[in-house]
Amino acid sequence: MKLLVTGATGKLGSKVVETLLKTVPANQLVVSVRNPEKAEGLRARGVEVRQGDFDHPETLDSAFAGIDRLLIISTDGDNETRINQHANAVAAAEHAEVKFIAYTSIANAKESENFLAPTHKVTEEAILKTGIPYSFLRNNWYMENEISSIKGVLAGAPWVTSAGNGKVGWALQEDYAEAAAVVLSGSGHKNTIYELSGKLLTQEEIATALGTVLGKEVPVKQVDDATYADIMKDAGVPEFLIPFLVDIQKSIRAGSLAVESNDFEKLLGRPATLVSEGLTQIVKGIS
Length: 287
Prior knowledge:
It comes from Aquibacillus albus. Helices cover 44% and strands 16% of the residues. By secondary structure, the chain is α/β, with parallel strands linked by helices.
């Protein structure tokens, strides 16, 4: 049985690989990475490293050859770029006749109005068309996505948001990685969809949790989108990233991440890590 993880040197992918190595023999694990030299540490531990670039389909055909179970970790970039990259990966999986595809998607992908959802909806549909057994891992939101806000609070700034009362199911990347590892290496996940979400919280609630961790009050500054953009610009956020950050706030405000689920418990035998524990880990990592 050969298992393959794409994007294995990325933040999520590297955590998935480390989790798998706790239970799967290294010689059963293969990683597909754009730059194999970045995975030399894995090669030294007995993991097979293959070059695979989602922008170059010919590399994926060879990367996926002989693979039984495949985890496609969604790429970064604009929706059009990602849709094309994912289409290349799905086509290569079909050519290689893999037996199972797990894919990291987004909350409620099929119906979501989230600006990131089109990529995931199209990719899920492409996987379904292959007829290959699948599992869609619909990840809600990484707690690590809030590191810049946490750093701002540590520097004395308020928690700034234009997300209103929108709720988010924050969880640590480690939790999402563990869930992906369970699905990729385990049985009983054929043709499944997992909505992976922590406890739903508002911006005020996560700021309160952060305040408890820090032992101080964390004020929340609710602003409109234009003001939020100005504040991000003044904070030194690169200009090209600001529309993306504003769209995130809009999507949260519209409720696109307010998807409650106990699927973490189904897969891990426990709920997602408590927000207070996750924030404590992140704060320790920053300081």
